[in-house]
Amino acid sequence: MLAMNYRGPYRVRADQKPEPQIEHPNDAIVRVTRSCICGSDLHLYHGMMPDTRVGMTFGHEFTGVVEQVGLGVQNLKVGDHVLVPFNIFCGACYFCQRELYSNCHNTNPEASAVGGIYGYSHSTGGYDGGQAEYVRVPMADVGPTVLPPDMDPDDAVLLTDALPTGYQAAEMGSIRRGDTVVVFGAGPVGIFAAKSAWLLGAGRVIVVDHVEYRLDFVRKYAQCEVINFREVDDMAVHIKKMTDWLGADVCIDCVGCEAVGNAMQTLTGRYLKWQAGSATVLHWAINSVRKGGHVSIVGVYGPTFNALPIGNAINKGLTLRMNQASVKRHLPRLIEHIQAGRIDPKQIITHRVPLEEVADAYHIFSSKLDHCIKTVLVPPRAAL
Amino acid sequence: METRDHSGQHRRANSLDEKDYAHIPGWGVDLARENRPAYPMERTPPRLEGASTERPQDQPLNVQVFHSIERPGVTPLFGSSAPPSGLSGKLRGAAYKLSENDIRHWLMLQMADRVNVIEGIGQDLGQGRVPNIFAEMGIRAEWQHNKAGLVRKVVVASAVAGLACYLLKRRNARLTR
Fold first, then answer.
1. Is A277 contained in some domain?
2. Which of A51, A60, A167, A243 to mutate to test the interface with B (most CBs of B within 10 A)?
3. CB-based contact A178 B76, cutoff 8 Å
4. How far, in whole angstroms, is CA B169 from its chain's centroid?
5. Which residues, numbered 272 to 301 in chain A, qualify as contacts with chain B under a Cβ-Cβ cut-off of 8 Å?
6. Does the distance separating the beta carbons of A332 and B37 come in below 8 Å?
7. A90, part of any domain
8. Residues in CB range of B164: below 8 A, 6 or more apart
9. DSSP code for B81
10. Tell me, what's the pLDDT at A374?
11. Cα B81 → chain centroid
């Protein structure tokens, strides 16, 4: 089968690889119909995530048709069109029993902090991902959700990560009626976080980025205010001025370890790798939020350490919440939002690229060429 | 005269009136906490249809799988992609003898990743394939969408390489004198 093949930092290609096999009675094999490149795939692509092995296939946002099921699978059948949450989870462990599916304890031998994730290095379990024609889907009875008949596959593929992560980011901010919410990052997750903040009752939503075309998009799509941080001397002072000097009620980090905007953070975090990535946005969020406010973090950081103004967080009495999204728990409500026309996820898709051109697709997304916001890879056997 | 800070007393509140947000589809539909899908943070029993509470059966171990020493063994499920091999595999094996709490664990894994890249090129060459590194880096897209940037990169790279050659030549000439 054709699959994306990681060869090293900034190097990927489409190669022929053996088709995946059923390795466990609860496995399914899914033929991929849509697969996205996620902003967090870029952390792998840029060589920032430890234990990313040459030969691996990335891709944790995908939909597909069930081609084969293991003997233990009862809820899925061959031919079902499914969206597959990026989390691989068992549904039975201590954490899954508390709906913390992203923290499943039974699916990632290589690390204890996070559960399994498709195509996201061996630090998240060593599973091949969905940027391929076929993919092995473990725990097929609990992970995948069959697409509702009226659901557009382009909407469905964004329900596997980007939209639930953006929604959870807003939700972890514990937004109250009328709150001022600042979202850092106008990528897909930031766009959906801004949109979700309104659903949760925010009174003002401000998105911060430096990529002008993305700011233009989010301004219209999420009906929010925007700030280009390149035009601002000091982010914390700017946000304070915008909020009568008290700070925002909620700040949300939708950027993570590859943030730009502070030369020292960029140097130590991104280039020298003395930190687990650049913590620029964490600084901005902690220093821009009001005393007693909430900071929500869904931007991805490496597993080592970051230099943070934790003293300020303590002195301000902040609540910090963070996690990988537990996609499955958000799906019923988000599907309702899509069906009711409150969110139209597919609007953020700017590029549709054949899987054969995966190297170009990664480069376009990574370098923000051609006004790219979201790229969907289409495998040769994607037709329904 | 020095400006005084009276901001602690005043804050213009955003509107709390739903009518002011009529232009935003769905404003406030998830305002009630109990309607939010991830509230409360830990929710038991989980809303999973048809899920078993039994520990999943163990996946057969047909490839070498490392496990964190912060857990007693390999989890019931795991990925079997790119099993460890070569020098990078040995480095990874050494890394997994240290806990996630030990910075050396992660640094060794990152070092193994870099070694693995060189092994990957060797693997390609061993299979009679010369990797097209420029194509793998998406140079076609760069040419298509950012010609000026590509030209600039080529000029800078050529200038740096030319300067390095010149300095090396000059040093060699000085040494042979």
1. yes
2. A51
3. no
4. 41
5. 273
6. yes
7. yes
8. none
9. S
10. 98
11. 17
Residues A313 and A172 in one domain: yes
pLDDT, one tens digit per residue, over A227-263 is 999 999 999 999 999 999 999 999 999 999 999 999 9
Residue A70 pLDDT: 97
| Cα–Cα dist A263/B126, whole Å | 42
Two tokens, residue A233: 């001397």
Interface of A with B in 229-248 (CB under 8 A): 243-246
> Whose structure tokens read 């390095």?
B164
Question: What CATH number is attached to the domain comprising A206?
Answer: 3.40.50.720
Q: Mark whether A246 and A179 lie in a shared domain.
A: yes
Domain boundary among A281, A302, A322: A322
Do the domain assignments include residue A383?
Answer: no
A340 and A310 part of one domain: no
pLDDT of residue A384: 67
Are A124 and A208 members of one domain?
no
- Total domains in chain A come to 2
Q: Are A221 and A208 in contact (CB under 8 A)?
A: no
For residues A331 and A145, is the Cβ–Cβ distance under 8 A?
A: yes
- pLDDT reported for residue B49: 81
Q: Are residues A98 and A153 in the same domain?
A: yes
Give the β-pairing of A225-228 and A134-137: unpaired
Closest CB from A125, A303, A329 relative to B37: A329
Q: List chain B residues with CB under 8 Å of A198.
A: 21, 24, 26-28
> What mean pLDDT comes out for the span A354-371?
97
| Average pLDDT along chain A | 96
The domain spans of chain B are: 64-131, 137-177
User: pLDDT for A290-316, tens place per residue?
Assistant: 999 999 999 999 998 999 999 999 999
Compute the distance between CA of residue B26 and CA of residue B92 in angstroms, rounded to an integer. Answer: 49
- DSSP letter at A98? G
Q: What are the pLDDT digits (tens) for A102-111?
A: 999 999 999 9
Residues A153 and A168 in one domain: no
pLDDT score for A292: 97
| B159 CB-near residues (< 8 Å, 6+ apart) | none
Q: Is residue A31 part of a domain?
A: yes
For residue range A165-188, list pLDDT tens digits in order.
999 999 999 999 999 999 999 999
- The ipTM (two decimal places) reads 0.93
Cβ(B61)–Cβ(B31) under 8 Å?
no
CB A189, CB A165: distance < 8 Å = yes
The answer to whether residues A247 and A171 belong to one domain is: yes
End-to-end CA separation in angstroms for chain A: 17
Give me the domain span that covers residue A36: 2-161+326-378
B-facing residues of A in 59-98 (CB < 8 A) are: 72, 74-75, 88, 90-93, 96-98
A13 and A134 share one domain: yes
CATH number of residue A70's parent domain? 3.90.180.10
How many Cβ contacts (< 8 angstroms) between chains A and B?
A: 286
Phi and psi dihedrals of A376, rounded to 5? Answer: -110, 130
Which positions in chain B touch A139 (Cβ < 8 Å)?
56, 77
Last residue of a domain, one of A307, A322, A337: A322
- For residue B177, the model assigns a pLDDT of 73
